[in-house]
Amino acid sequence: MKEPIEYSLTAIIIVLLFIASSSILASMVAPIDYKLDLEAMSLLDKITLTAGQPENWGEAIINGNELEDFGLSSNLPGHLDKGKVNALTFRALGSFYNTTNNPFYMSPEDFLLNWISLQYRGFIIDFIPALNISITVTNNNVEIKTYNNKGKNITPLVDVNVIVVTESVAGVNVSLFSQPVITVNDEVKVVAAIAYYNSTCSISYWVDEDVNCGFAIDRFIISCIELNANEVNLLQVFRNYTVIEYTFKGKRTNPTIETNNTDEGFKWEVNFSPFQVDEDNSIYVYEVLLENSFGGIDDEVVFLLAYNESVISVFFTYPAPIHLPNGYLNIINLRYGGLTPPTMSGVASKFVFIGFANYLIKLYMWRASR
């Protein structure tokens, strides 16, 4: 029979062997983690510092051209092209009740095909707004709450611009507010909330369940319904609301506009003959042009509104959460790539501008099976 001291020595030896093996394993894993971190940072720099090929590939894919090299830069230091980001994050179009796949969405598998260096790698890119803005609409009341990246409620410290689109028997009304709690007289259809905290700015949206939603890439709006020039007017809504510019061709009826200035001399045109039609999926692409020139939709535009006597459709210009009366509209996903990164992943992140808004771009990378 063994003495207690022998059991103690055996236990000590087992513990020491476990510690030694754990240290050896950790020393083997650490270089792998470090290498993956370097790979992740290298790829993140490539994505955020280069525009890709062709440089205007966000627009080029609508023209049917192939993407030859991948990058998200707008060629302004620290700025990403929001049209390119929209091509990665808007997976579908439509309303809460009915959605249609976005034919221009670049799947992560397509991304891998354009990055030979990513063979046998898995990845996720998160586009995280610097501020988390929640929008709650109850009857005719709108409430905006803002949280920092640690989840702390900073609403009392934040300045906001809140654009509210309402609808009544009298027609469509667009209003600007600068307070986080708002009461309106009519049914709320669309809300855009822009929050400012210190030098940080973020945007978030809310839509009613029956509103059809599309999005913008450069000078194009992607729609899931056909827009008829004789029946539809298109309104560009800017974040500071000092100017509202109409884009129209055909019959025009004015909504009620509450604004400091409406510049009637600055004309925009919409080509209401679809630039491209995907009849199988009921997708229509329309071109928005500055009169007699070739241009895109300004970064200051937070959404475009198609309307007549009522709201027909809204086209979002920013990759941002879209709130519903209950939950979120799933046409957009700000996580591109896999669902959940594995434990052994390389991680890299940086803050960037997309248009006027601030985002944290976070990239995870791991080794995938061959």
Can you walk through the features of this model?
- Residues 24-32 and 245-268 have low confidence and may be disordered.
- The protein has an eight-stranded mixed β-sheet, covered by helices on one side.
- The chain is globular, with a radius of gyration of 25 Å.
- The protein has a domain at 132-323.
- Helices cover 17% and strands 40% of the residues.
- By secondary structure, the protein is of the alpha+beta class.
- The longest helix has 46 residues, at 4-49.
Strand content: 35-45%
Mean pLDDT: 80
Tell me the number of strands.
24
Element string (H = helix, E = strand): HHEHEEHEEEEEEEEEEEEEEEEEEEEE
Largest sheet: spatial strand order: 15-14-19-20-12-13-18-17
Instruction: Report the sheet with the most strands, covering strand number, pairing sense and barrel closure.
Output: 8 strands, mixed
Supply the number of helical segments. 4
**Uncertain stretches of 5 or more adjacent residues:** 24-32, 245-268
Distance between the termini: 53 Å
Gyration radius (Cα, Å) is: 25 Å
Assign a percent range to the helix content. Answer: 10-25%
User: What form results from the Cα inertia axes?
Assistant: globular
Which secondary-structure class do the elements indicate?
alpha+beta
